[in-house]
Design brief:
Elements: H1 8-25, E1 30-36, E2 39-47, E3 52-54, H2 70-84, E4 90-92, H3 102-105, H4 110-118
Parallel strand pairs: 3-4
Antiparallel strand pairs: 1-2, 2-3
Amino acid sequence: MRHPSDSKPQTKAERKIIEKASEALRCHLSTQTMRFRDGQVQIDGYSLRARVLCEAFSHQGVPVGGQLRKPLADALKLLFVEKQLKGGGERCLPSPIRRPPDHFRKPPGGLALSVRWALR
């Protein structure tokens, strides 16, 4: 089920990002709703065979408000799912942005450090 804030251009961009990630990782990634005892989670790109979990960050332009936290929320979701699946996989947050804004890259920002740690 789509979130009310999802837009068609954003959904289209996410599909393209996942398609490119599939090519780069040489595995087929597909949207997957995973059900666990505590609830369910939708993953933008998943490959059971290659053990890859992927969330696309399709926002372009200067992020504002909650958009600043989306990569961190996505990284936390990937960590949760990996733990439920008993680990051993690869996590990725592909984005169309060639050079992410400073708050996603440079320490000592908590957001940058947290996302880097989550994707190790």
